[in-house]
């Protein structure tokens, strides 16, 4: 059976996901089979596995750091907020249904068997399991039915590392206050405290570390510096949303209220002189070289939001000379109409942005597939993509049809649906067309479409050429290699700042 260690935080965005990923990479480097686990994740960034099952992208990132394929066993429960009061509940990669927060709170204890089964199956694949908590373990109003923090730690008998974020201030109050609110049995599980995102001279902090250990009676096992990394983070509090500086080439991403899978833009972040700005008002739009409409968990509501705040009109005005690209929900918005006869979202129908000749009908069944294919022979601005291979995945609740003869964006084969859908092989390799384009406007259902090969670099070269400048991309490594380098950099930083001997002692002393 696997040894296990758990990373909990004093608050959301304390750095749990990144630290868990770093530990996964360290244990992998040290020769262990390691896997990440998070019993319940709330996020709008999700991924489709080879089996056609849906899971949170944070655990995908951690699986990459661990050097293993993502599996829904790593994230048996995923909550995708649909509004301020409810979420779509996904269990073992399948949609269970939409629930209000109160209904889910009453229901979630019944999901404990699913959590246990996933964890037990994951144990068969790993020597060490690195568990990530959610939010804070000191949410005393939620403690009774907890399945993701101390409740889970008790369930699997895991020692805990508690992480505080000094960058946001009050780290001593964060850590000591959290410990004070824990039950005595829970306090005993906390084997080490970590101060995260430290900037400056550590010697100035040292007296505070000593007092923290004296008052909390728990050792501080590390002061982790603020590290400049390009690694996926959780969606709700992403620091990427704070970027305002414009590069020589500027990509504006529409940050609507239910933005999902903004990770589609990560590949562009490694290209020097290219800015990725997430904007939510007309005054922030300025004059980008490319406007991207990303995925949305509530397409009709987010389109209404754009219509009301003037972004729709501004984007349509710029479409004459600016490259517009829509992915998934953003693709649906670009069409002529969206109808919702089954009340998947808002019900009824609405006019789209009318930039692409397509119509979308939202459906009850969610499409969940991995995709491989090639770009069609494209004319116009992205013609250099013609014939290039692409990989990605689809995750949407709707079907889209063209209303006039217009070229498709790419030809694809579906590679990841469940076996019962396509026979014993679980694969449907029948080519089909996806997306379309018209003049400067492009759309597709495929997430991750920019990640493979030189697709992102080709788009940047086109944008730069149109602007009469040159952006050097020839020396860039592919995105997979770039991410591997980031995980190694993360592990190196953690090894230098964490007492790994103490962490290994915590692992050896774990009951499991």
TrEMBL record:
CobQ/CobB/MinD/ParA nucleotide binding domain ranges (all copies): 5-229
Keyword entries, A-Z: Cobalamin biosynthesis, Glutamine amidotransferase
Active site (record annotation): 328, 447
InterPro entries: Class_I_gatase-like, CobQ/CobB/MinD/ParA_Nub-bd_dom, CobQ_GATase1, CobQ_N, CobQ_synth, GATase_3, P-loop_NTPase
Keyword rRNA processing: no
Pathway(s) this gene product operates in, as recorded in its UniProt entry: Cofactor biosynthesis; adenosylcobalamin biosynthesis
Biological-process GO terms, alphabetical: cobalamin biosynthetic process
Protein family according to the UniProt entry: Belongs to the CobB/CobQ family. CobQ subfamily.
Protein name: Cobyric acid synthase
Organism of origin: Hespellia stercorisuis DSM 15480
């Amino acid at each position: 059976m696997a040894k296990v260690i758990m990373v909990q935080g004093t608050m959301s965005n304390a750095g749990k996901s990144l630290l868990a990923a770093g530990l996964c990479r360290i244990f992998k480097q040290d020769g262990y089979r390691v896997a990440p686990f998070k019993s319940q994740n709330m996020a709008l960034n999700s991924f489709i596995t080879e089996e056609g099952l849906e899971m949170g992208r944070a655990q995908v990132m951690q699986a990459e750091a661990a050097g293993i394929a993502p599996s829904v066993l790593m994230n048996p429960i995923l909550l995708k907020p649909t509004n301020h009061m409810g979420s779509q509940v996904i269990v073992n990669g399948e949609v269970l249904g939409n629930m209000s927060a109160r209904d889910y709170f009453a229901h979630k204890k019944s999901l404990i068997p699913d959590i246990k089964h996933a964890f037990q199956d994951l144990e068969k694949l790993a020597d060490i399991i690195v568990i990530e908590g959610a939010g804070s373990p000191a949410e005393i109003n939620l403690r009774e039915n907890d399945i993701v923090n101390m409740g889970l730690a008790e369930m699997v008998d895991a020692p805990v590392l508690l992480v505080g974020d000094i960058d946001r201030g009050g780290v001593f109050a964060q850590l000591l206050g959290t410990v004070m609110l824990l039950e005595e049995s829970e306090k005993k599980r906390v084997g080490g405290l970590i101060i995260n995102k430290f900037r400056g001279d550590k010697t100035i902090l040292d007296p505070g570390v000593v007092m923290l250990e004296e008052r909390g009676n728990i050792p501080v096992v590390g002061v982790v510096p603020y590290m400049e990394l390009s690694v996926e983070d959780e969606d709700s509090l992403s620091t990427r949303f704070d970027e305002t500086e414009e590069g020589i080439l500027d990509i504006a991403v529409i940050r609507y209220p239910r933005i999902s899978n903004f990770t589609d833009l990560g590949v562009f972040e490694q290209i020097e002189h290219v800015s990725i700005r997430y904007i939510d008002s007309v005054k922030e739009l300025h004059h980008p070289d490319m406007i991207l409409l990303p995925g949305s968990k509530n397409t009709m509501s987010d389109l209404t939001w754009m219509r009301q705040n003037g972004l729709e009109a501004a984007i349509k005005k710029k479409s004459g000379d600016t490259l517009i690209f829509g992915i998934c929900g953003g693709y649906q918005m670009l069409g002529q109409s969206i109808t919702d006869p089954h009340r998947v979202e808002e019900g009824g129908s609405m006019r789209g942005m009318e930039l692409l000749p397509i119509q979308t009908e939202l459906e009850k069944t969610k499409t969940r597939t991995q995709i491989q294919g090639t770009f069609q022979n494209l004319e116009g601005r992205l013609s250099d993509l013609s014939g290039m291979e692409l990989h990605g995945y689809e995750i949407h609740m709707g079907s889209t049809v063209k209303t006039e003869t217009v070229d498709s964006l790419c030809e694809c084969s579906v590679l990841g649906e469940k076996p019962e859908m396509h026979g014993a092989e679980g694969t449907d390799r029948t080519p089909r067309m996806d997306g379309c384009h018209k003049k400067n406007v492009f759309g597709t259902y495929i997430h991750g479409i920019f990640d493979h090969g030189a697709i992102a670099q080709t788009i940047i070269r086109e944008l730069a050429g149109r602007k009469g400048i040159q952006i050097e991309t020839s020396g860039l490594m592919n995105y997979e290699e770039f991410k591997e380098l980031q995980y190694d950099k993360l592990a190196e930083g953690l090894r230098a700042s964490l007492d790994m001997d103490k962490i290994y002692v915590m692992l050896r002393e774990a009951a499991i």
